Amino acid sequence: MSDIKIKEAPVTDEEAQPILTHEKSLSQKIARGSEAGDILDQQMVMLGIQLVTHLNVLIKTSRIYERTNAALDKPVDAMLTLIKTMAHDQPVTLRLQNDFLFLGDSHLKVNAQQMAVATSIIDALNAWKIGGMTFSSTVESKDLREFAALFVSLDPDNKTIEDLQKEITVRGIAGIEIGEQRQLQIRRGSGTTGNMGSDGTESTDRNVQRKVNAKTGYAKMAGSVGTLTQASREGGSISFKQAKRAIQNIIDLMADDEATVLGLTTLRCHDEYTHNHSVNVSLLSMALANRVGYPKVELADLGLAALFHDMGKSTIPMEVLNKPGEFTDDDWVAMRNHPTEGVLSLSKLRGITNLPGRMAAAAFEHHMNLDFSGYPKLTVPWTLSLTGRILTIADCYDAMTSSRVYRREPMSPSKVLNMMLSKSGKSFDEVLLKLFVNCVGIVPIGSLVMLETSELAVVLKPAADKANGERPFVRVITDSQGNLVDHGREIDLTEKDETGDFRHNIIRLIDNTEYKFDTSRYFV
Ligand SMILES: [Fe+2]
Ligand SMILES: [Fe+2]
């Protein structure tokens, strides 16, 4: 389920467009973070996409022609010009991280036409488990030709990246280095097994402290949503300072223990649904964006945008929001207006920074869906931001697993995930949804499962090994008679016995809604 295949892209000549150049000393004159710096970054990203395009042509052409063939001249020359343009003070590094391409630290955002080329390169790099490719300014035509020939002649199914590296040295290819894929530094949560407390690898004190901090961070975020929504209703002045600080703390906690933070999102029984929902969407969005490879600063901006994505609801009367019965048509109109109202509310808070402006874009887009089947409906062409696409996934997941607002009855996390997967590529971005499943797990965090011993257990975090995605880490919460137990044992369902069989098995998923208790207490 977690291996969604990306289609092979055909190579066309139009992809090999002429290249841009810019003054080499420009980057030294421009301060980073300045507006001119942004423009320079954008230009580098454009050149980066061209580099990817020509690399793709080079690899495809090398499958057909010899390394000295004239058919290779065009992509090779284009690459050399690009590399020499970009690699003035440091080599050019193309990185692959969680199925997204980066030039150095800049995400290479591709448009629909460039998508085929990008996925073709992503597939090629993934096949070799290559996480980075560095070209230095000294690279020559013969190096690129030799490298491409080598790349297509060896079979990644029976050779490793080390074999490829060795061959690069043996053949004297200079100016090109390849590196292995690496995990994100910030995330140690779901990929590792070392920080769940009961395994004794970490002091319990620290664990307890972290859980307390996570809970406090969550409460602070919810608190600031409450205060700011109230202030917005009353037209008062607003400062995002408290929210920003709380988000920063949460990001630090996530780096340490993502599972605990995501566990908080399973908090279901709460009166202040809207505030909890906002915090949950923020946490889930940040976890997803982290996998996308957002740098820390952008992660905080996204967290803030997600926290206030439903700001437009402050214009909906409380009686409507908390209505126990069905919505009337008018109620629905008001409800469907909240993304647009959100833009207005956030734009009013613009102040001297442009942050609320970016937040407004995210609020505007969060119900549109990838295929624009949602709302608001637009009569002009629109391109969804990456933040908007991330938010759509996090928002839908939390809204459906929680009760209230859109549905009277909440659905179990796994039902929601299955429903969302059935709309992959339609309502939701396919790659992002795949990464989201990695965050919450195929059997999502907070799910209730019955083990073959008839004990009930709650899912704490996804399996470390994605091949065993259906075997998460769980905590036993009842005995086989269904009596709640305190401090139940923690089980890694991928654990095998001496005969090589799995020690424990899930026999069925329990609909959380059957048992109306709060699974979040098993996390904090
Ligand atoms: Fe919304
Ligand atoms: Fe929402």
Characterize this entry briefly.
By secondary structure, the chain is α+β, with helices and mostly antiparallel strands.
Q: Overview of this structure, please?
A:
- The chain is of the alpha+beta class and 524 residues long.
- Helix 10 (273-292) packs across helix 18 and helix 15 packs across helix 16 (386-401).
- Strands 3-2-1-4-5 form a five-stranded antiparallel sheet. A five-stranded antiparallel sheet has the order 9-8-7-6-10.
- It is built from 18 helices and ten strands.
- It has helices at residues 26-29, 35-62, 73-86, 112-128, 141-153, 161-170, 204-234, 241-256, 258-263, 273-292, 296-307, 318-321, 329-336, 338-348, 355-365, 386-401, 413-422, 430-440; strands at 92-97, 100-103, 106-107, 130-135, 176-180, 448-451, 456-461, 473-476, 490-492, 506-510.
- One fe (ii) ion binds at residues 310, 338, 366-367, 395.
- The site of one fe (ii) ion has 5 residues, from loops.
**Which class do the helix and strand fractions yield?**
alpha+beta
- Which band does the percent of strand residues land in? 5-15%
Helical fraction: 40-55%
Strand order, sheet with most strands: 3-2-1-4-5
List the ions, cofactors and other small molecules found in this model: fe (ii) ion
Number of strands: 10
- The run of helices and strands is HHHEEEHEHHEHHHHHHHHHHHHEEEEE
How much is the average pLDDT? 79
The gyration radius over C-alpha positions equals 25 Å
Largest sheet: 5 strands, antiparallel
- Rounded to the nearest angstrom, the distance between the terminal CA atoms is 30 Å
Low-confidence stretches: 1-35, 183-202
Counting H and I runs of at least 4 residues, what is the number of helices?
18
Shape: globular
